[in-house]
Amino acid sequence: GDDDARGLEELRPKFIVMYDVDVGFVRRVEVFKAANPDHSLKVFFMVYDNSVEEQRYLSQIRKEKAAFEKLIREKSVMAIPIDQDGRIAQDPDEAFWRSLDTRLAGGQAHAPGAPKTPTVIVDVREFRSSLPSALHAAHLTLTPATLEVGDYVITPRIAVERKSVPDLISSLKSGRLFTQMEAMLRHYPVPVLLVEFDQARAFGLIAPADLSAEIRGGDVGSRLVLLVLAFPGMRIMWSVSPRATAEMFSDLKEGAPEPAVDVAVGVGVEGDLDGNLNVTPCDMLRSLPGITSKNCRHVMSQVNSLRELAEMDLAGLQALLGQEGGRKLHEFFATDPRESGALG
């Protein structure tokens, strides 16, 4: 360890004879020689040829080589935060904005004609997470609203559904994420799935050793692949921290128009229809397969009766409810209840 390095500096030997070969000490000697290129030094190993000691030393060398190869391979695919490795110069005002205490009402007064800060519409339930605070620290204006579709609306074209890793796994298993992506694709040209990792954990969803070449129903990676295949228009953002997410949001908003709050709130809610609805058909509609609380009002606004809904073909139902919901409802209407086990 450090004692070896200190001993080499104090003794500054010209010859070293190693009876018990140790890779760690060999590396210390190499560092000492590199730091003193003019110093004459020779190293001798005293070990029997083809002995256990020789094989132990060679095994240590192979392990060290494998560790470096793994490090190089991991670094080649590692996601590096954009504020590292000198990519972007630090904003001189960044320290001020991050240390600003908003309870003192700092920064509320803006000079006339000052540029308007970018706006992000945030679902009110998202304020339990740390991302809204990071967005505020990134100089983004937050507009809270009750959103039926998506958690964040960045532009009129981009909506984001945020998932932590545990929430992503549970949503994939329950099928809830499939329904959410279906609704987002129906209303936004660019739906985004944001997967936010914990800063204290590794930035990886699946260990490389657990990757499989086959798609398995119970595997998280396989479910995510199936989700991407079902919704090719979906985009996935991987974020190592809320701060990194805020920087990505700022990049997405650059040069884009601002979202309208009334439009975002109205997405997924097709007007206040409760006063003009017949209660019994509504209850029957909600009990049908493929009908959820998210799309129920949309169906009510598009069809006039249950009979009209039942007479629609598969293409029409899928256009109304999405691929999976339309298929389920079409199979239900096409099933003959007189067949054995049809309703079981």
From TrEMBL:
<dbReference type="InterPro" id="IPR006166">
    <property type="entry name" value="ERCC4_domain"/>
</dbReference>
<dbReference type="GO" id="GO:0000724">
    <property type="term" value="P:double-strand break repair via homologous recombination"/>
</dbReference>
<dbReference type="InterPro" id="IPR047520">
    <property type="entry name" value="XPF_nuclease"/>
</dbReference>
<dbReference type="Pfam" id="PF02732">
    <property type="entry name" value="ERCC4"/>
</dbReference>
<dbReference type="GO" id="GO:0000712">
    <property type="term" value="P:resolution of meiotic recombination intermediates"/>
</dbReference>
<keyword id="KW-0238">DNA-binding</keyword>
<dbReference type="InterPro" id="IPR010994">
    <property type="entry name" value="RuvA_2-like"/>
</dbReference>
<keyword id="KW-0255">Endonuclease</keyword>
<protein>
    <submittedName>
        <fullName>Restriction endonuclease type II-like protein</fullName>
    </submittedName>
</protein>
<keyword id="KW-0378">Hydrolase</keyword>
<dbReference type="GO" id="GO:0000110">
    <property type="term" value="C:nucleotide-excision repair factor 1 complex"/>
</dbReference>
<dbReference type="GO" id="GO:0000014">
    <property type="term" value="F:single-stranded DNA endodeoxyribonuclease activity"/>
</dbReference>
<dbReference type="GO" id="GO:1901255">
    <property type="term" value="P:nucleotide-excision repair involved in interstrand cross-link repair"/>
</dbReference>
<keyword id="KW-0540">Nuclease</keyword>
<dbReference type="GO" id="GO:0003697">
    <property type="term" value="F:single-stranded DNA binding"/>
</dbReference>
<comment type="similarity">
    <text>Belongs to the XPF family.</text>
</comment>
<keyword id="KW-0234">DNA repair</keyword>
<keyword id="KW-0539">Nucleus</keyword>
<dbReference type="GO" id="GO:0003684">
    <property type="term" value="F:damaged DNA binding"/>
</dbReference>
<dbReference type="InterPro" id="IPR011335">
    <property type="entry name" value="Restrct_endonuc-II-like"/>
</dbReference>
<keyword id="KW-0227">DNA damage</keyword>
<feature type="domain" description="ERCC4">
    <location>
        <begin position="119"/>
        <end position="199"/>
    </location>
</feature>
